[in-house]
Design goal:
- The protein is α/β, with parallel strands linked by helices.
- The protein is built from 6 helices and 7 strands, in the order E-H-E-H-E-H-E-H-E-E-H-E-H.
- The strands form 2 sheets. Strands 2-1-3-4-7 form a 5-stranded parallel beta sheet, with helices on both faces.
- Strand 1, helix 1 and strand 2 form a beta-alpha-beta unit.
- It is globular and about 50 Å long.
- The mean pLDDT is 96.
């Protein structure tokens, strides 16, 4: 299978080394990694179009949905997941911690308060409380696993077989 690797990993200081390891991990499982870093585009519009083309050509998407610069996954990754789902692609997301959204917000922002029956963050905004590891718009349609890319590949194999 061709697997699009979505996530903020392209922003890592060691992104090229990460991509090499991710390609090797996918190849060892019998798959081809489609890595956004492989694009030769340098403009925002060009990168967008190239990534969209990669998602269209993928059989499935494996997405790093760990918090990025806050309590939520990378917004670009969330878009890519939604786009892949709209195309009918399978999406397996992975998160490092086995925790609910309320637990994660509490861990990253400090203890939550309650307004009636609703947990609220330090700004007073309600925190989604369905016992899911991510916002319901990601956690319901995608298969979420705890772990890393290797864990997502394992889950993909289990779903195929």
């Amino acid at each position: 299978m061709q697997l699009y690797l979505a996530g903020p990993d392209v922003f890592r200081p060691d992104a090229a080394a990460w991509a090499d390891q991710a390609r090797a991990l996918c190849a060892a499982a019998g798959h081809v990694a489609l890595v956004p870093l492989d694009n030769v585009e340098t403009t925002a519009a060009g990168i967008y179009r190239a990534n969209i083309d990669l998602i269209r050509s993928a059989d499935a998407v494996l997405a790093n949905l760990n918090p990025f610069r806050g309590c939520e996954p990378d917004s670009g990754t969330a878009f890519e997941v939604g786009f892949a789902l709209a195309l009918g692609k399978s999406v397996i997301g992975y998160v490092e911690h086995a925790e609910t959204t309320t637990e994660r917000v509490g861990r990253l922002q400090g203890e939550l308060r309650f307004s009636g029956n609703f947990p609220v963050d330090r700004q007073g905004w309600h925190v989604e409380n369905f016992g899911l590891p991510l916002n319901l718009m990601l956690a319901v349609p995608a298969h979420i696993v705890v772990g890393d890319l290797a864990s997502a590949l394992l889950a993909l194999g289990e779903r195929q077989g």
